[in-house]
Specification:
This protein is α+β, with helices and mostly antiparallel strands. It contains eleven helices and 27 strands.
Length: 482
């Protein structure tokens, strides 16, 4: 039972709504109009048994229907209700209509019928502000059909899901969220609560107990989802963090002890390398690359067949600046934001015989200038391969570029005049490469790690152990050695 409100009119009450269930498990939506709410609200109790007489049955029409039924009940002023003893009749307390995989496409951005979803809790995010009035929390679940889905819990639903309640060493936690809307953004389907939603965790019913048993051997624990709208450092600093030109990047010597490192590079796209294609097929749970065998996609990471493989971007682009050229890779997250469309949609637009051809939308990137945040891994740092992974990119801001160059020149001048050991310049990445030893402590990434950047004839290193929560590395395409 819930209040149906109009959020566009200061939360004005529209009706008192509820879902009834009978002894056969049939579900029906019922409403008490605003003018009659005062007659019934104190008499109706969620979870209690009633007989109801003298009501109207009408065709269920319009949007936001909480159950898939052709009919609904409307209370009259003269409707009679009588509470019954709980031991009368064998009527279940709960009833659900869980969305099935073949229903999802028809309900995306279609709010005619709301959807009940169920799955094992995989991740929990922080409460975030959405606009000036609303708050939300995102969680992730793995469904019974092995799809990973995001659910946005608005307001009080999110408040009930504090991460400390769901520890890694306990669980699994089987989550039910009822009456959600279904949305798609850049190829990923997500669900969102409404005023009709209810949230259950490990509900004591047979189906949920069977899911708990199933996921008890599969669950790797609840993860913390990084906030989607919080930037760690200001963009004016992030765009120049460990800035290098391409020549510096290719000629730097890197210690084998460094596992991962982040730099920024500015360059113009001169071409798209189509040797490796522009997309890959991934598992919908772990996002690892999968290949078909006898028409079946098998994920060796999850050790099971993938029924719903995803098409994701993996675009190799040639980048050049005045010092040299190299190849960088745009994976799905970055490419979708840049192209403003999903790889799935581009893939479906191409003829089946030519789906390896680079689409015109991707070719249109040639000639454009960007600043790239590169996530270097062991293939780049230790084995000397190019194909650097782009974790973020920006359109250059010429005013900021000029300010950066002036600060860098000023820093270099001051260090030459100062005979003492130079200090680091904070998080702006403005380090003098003539220094004999510069200690970099990046409090934004790992305050307990202190790593040295040691200068030498062939070594211009700015070392730090930085692990970004981005997609898989491009292991299959690290073929171009320096």
């Amino acid at each position: 039972m819930w209040d149906a409100i109009n959020p566009k009119n200061n939360g004005e009450l529209i009706s008192l709504d509820m879902i009834f269930i009978d002894e056969k498990g049939n579900l029906m939506h019922a409403i008490v109009r605003k003018s009659h709410v005062h007659r019934f609200k104190h008499k109706l109790i969620e979870g209690a048994l009633f007989t109801i007489k003298n009501f109207k049955v009408v065709e269920s029409c319009g949007g936001y229907r909480p159950v898939e039924s052709s009919l609904k009940i409307i209370f009259f002023a003269s409707t009679a209700i009588k509470k019954l003893s709980e031991d009368i009749g064998d009527i279940p307390i709960n009833g659900f209509q869980f969305i099935k995989p073949d229903m999802i496409e028809s309900r995306v951005h279609n709010n005619t019928i709301l959807s009940d979803v169920v799955g094992c809790l995989y991740g929990v995010g922080d409460m975030e502000s959405a606009g000036s009035k609303w708050k939300k929390r995102d969680i992730q679940i793995v469904t019974d059909y092995s799809a990973k889905s995001k659910i946005t819990l608005w307001e009080e639903f999110g408040e009930q899901f504090a991460p400390y309640l769901y520890k890694k060493d306990s669980g699994p936690y089987i989550v039910i969220v009822t009456s959600t809307t279904v949305k798609e953004f850049r190829g990923e389907v997500s669900f969102s609560t409404t005023s009709a939603s209810k949230v259950y965790v490990n509900l004591d019913i047979d189906y949920i107990r069977s899911l708990m048993q199933k996921f008890s051997t599969m669950s790797a624990g609840v993860q913390i989802i990084e906030s989607s709208n919080v930037n760690t450092i200001p963009i004016e600093e992030e765009m120049f963090f460990n800035r290098m030109d391409i020549k510096e990047l290719l000629e730097s010597d890197w210690s084998p002890k460094i596992q991962e490192y982040v730099v920024t590079v500015r360059g113009k796209i001169t071409g798209i390398r189509d040797y490796f294609g522009w997309y890959y097929i991934s598992c919908n749970v772990c996002s690892k690359k999968i290949k078909p065998a006898d028409g079946v996609y098998r994920c060796h990471q999850c050790n099971k067949d993938c029924k719903f493989p995803l098409v994701k971007y993996k675009i190799h682009i040639k980048v050049k600046d005045k010092t040299g050229d190299t190849t960088v890779v745009l994976f799905n997250d970055v490419a979708e934001k840049l192209l403003d469309t999903s790889a799935h949609k581009l893939f479906n637009k191409l003829p089946l015989s030519n789906n390896n051809d680079v689409p015109a939308q991707i070719e249109s990137l040639c000639g454009k200038d960007f600043v790239y945040k590169l996530k270097l891994n062991k293939f780049n740092l230790v084995e000397g391969f190019e194909n650097f992974t782009v974790s973020k990119l920006w359109i250059p801001d010429e005013d900021l570029e000029v300010q950066y160059k002036l600060r860098k020149e000023e820093t270099g001048k001051n260090l030459l005049e100062d005979e003492s050991e130079p200090k680091d310049q904070g998080n702006k990445g403005l380090f003098n490469e003539m220094a004999s030893a510069i200690v970099v402590v990046d409090s934004l990434e790992d305050p307990e790690e202190e790593l040295r950047a040691i200068d030498g004839a062939k070594s211009r290193k700015r070392r730090n152990l930085i692990v970004d929560d981005d997609e898989s590395t491009d292991e299959d395409t690290n073929k171009c050695k320096k």
